[in-house]
């Protein structure tokens, strides 16, 4: 809206948060709290005499050597990157009212990358040797052929959505058919309209 609307109109637009900003708020609040809670719980287990036998059987964890309680992370310690199909999301994330707390400099979404930029980054990292997917391949086949990525560090998607670990089915994988713009939203609207208005199932 910033590109086509007069700045005087901006304060009068809908105050609803776009999905990208909702995700940023959740990452820097709910998931951050869960991460801090898990770190504290692991530290407590490593210090508690009730779990001394467990420490003998397992390999030492990185937090087991800590004598002091771990310092909880704050929203400023998290850098949230959002990948979006549209350049307008960059402008949206820069709006001054999309901050974690009013008056702070901590944004809900720190960086927005477009899918084109992600592809350019992948090509640059691979020396322009990114293989093209076959014409009839599904998204699941392409990701399965790529193999599991090393997820160094803790994966917090199991808090709300299920874990992403190698060998498990990918719970966040959603195939979008060809030419389905806006992440499949246009296709969804078209199919629902055809069903509701003309009783045609596509």
Account of the 3D structure:
By secondary structure, this protein is mainly alpha-helical. Helices cover 37% and strands 4% of the residues. It has a two-stranded parallel ribbon with strand order 1-2. The longest helix is centred in the N-terminal third of the chain and has 29 residues. 7% of the residues are buried. This is Iron hydrogenase large subunit C-terminal domain-containing protein. It holds the Pfam family Fe_hyd_lg_C. Belongs to the NARF family. InterPro entries: Cytosolic_Fe-S_CAF, Fe_hydrogenase, Fe_hydrogenase_lsu_C.
Rg calculated over all Cα atoms: 22 Å
End-to-end separation:
33 Å
Q: What number is the mean pLDDT?
A: 73
Beta-strand residue percentage: under 5%
Largest sheet composition: 2 strands, parallel
Globally, the shape reads: extended
Low-confidence stretches: 160-164, 170-176
Strand-helix topology:
Elements: H1 19-47, H2 52-57, E1 81-84, H3 88-93, E2 111-114, H4 115-125, H5 139-146, H6 185-198
Parallel strand pairs: 1-2
Family: Belongs to the NARF family.
Pfam families: Fe_hyd_lg_C (PF02906)
Protein name: Iron hydrogenase large subunit C-terminal domain-containing protein
């Amino acid at each position: 809206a910033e590109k086509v609307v007069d700045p005087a109109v901006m304060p009068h637009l809908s105050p609803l948060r776009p999905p990208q900003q909702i995700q940023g708020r959740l990452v820097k609040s709910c998931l951050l709290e869960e991460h801090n809670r898990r770190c504290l719980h692991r530290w407590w287990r490593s210090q508690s005499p009730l779990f001394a036998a467990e420490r003998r059987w397992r390999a030492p964890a990185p937090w087991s050597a800590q004598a002091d309680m771990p310092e909880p992370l704050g929203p400023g310690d998290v850098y949230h990157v959002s990948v979006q199909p549209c350049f307008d999301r960059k402008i949206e994330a820069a709006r001054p009212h999309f901050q974690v707390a009013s008056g702070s400099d901590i944004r809900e979404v720190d960086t927005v990358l477009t899918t084109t930029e992600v592809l350019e980054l992948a090509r640059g990292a691979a020396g322009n040797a990114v293989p093209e997917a076959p014409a009839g391949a599904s998204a699941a086949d392409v990701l399965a052929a790529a193999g599991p990525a090393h997820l160094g560090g803790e994966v917090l998607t199991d808090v709300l959505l299920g874990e992403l670990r190698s060998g498990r089915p990918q719970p966040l994988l959603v195939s979008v058919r060809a030419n389905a713009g806006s992440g499949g939203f246009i296709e969804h609207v078209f199919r629902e309209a055809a069903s509701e208005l003309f009783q045609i199932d596509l």
